[in-house]
Design brief:
With 116 residues, the protein is mostly helical. It is 50% helix and 9% strand. The protein has six helices and four strands. The strands form two sheets. It has a two-stranded antiparallel sheet. A two-stranded antiparallel ribbon has the order 3-4. InterPro entries: SWIB_domain, SWIB_MDM2_dom_sf, SWIB_MDM2_domain.
């Protein structure tokens, strides 16, 4: 009987180890690092042709693409047959280098040529 009491006491002492303090969260460090204006969040200055569509103030690349899509949808420039194609009006034709239509996948390339 003495053996079972000793075994039970040993089990309880091994399971009640002191908890280690929690390490600082990496997400907080990433959040602080992401607040700087680098990468996708870096404000870019649009060219005069692009400024006619999105405005003159510097914007992040994501906001520029969003404003172009807002313009496309407001003017009804998305092709009705093939939704992946964007039809150019006078403002967009200048951005699209004279092309009447481009693929939505080429939109990022067009924006890259018109920002600093």
């Amino acid at each position: 009987m003495a053996k079972t009491a000793k075994t039970a006491a040993t089990k309880t002492t091994t399971t009640t180890k002191a908890a280690k303090p929690a390490a600082p969260k990496k997400a907080a460090a990433k959040k602080a690092a992401g607040s700087s204006s680098t990468g996708l969040k870096a404000p870019l200055t649009p060219s005069p042709a692009l400024a006619e569509v999105v405005g003159k103030q510097p914007l992040p690349r994501t906001e520029i693409i969003k404003k172009i899509w807002d313009y496309i949808k407001a003017k009804g420039l998305q092709d009705t047959q093939n939704k992946r194609m964007i039809n150019a009006d006078d403002k967009l034709k200048e951005l699209f280098e004279g092309k009447k239509q481009i693929s939505m996948f080429d939109l990022a390339k067009v924006v890259s040529k018109h920002v600093k």
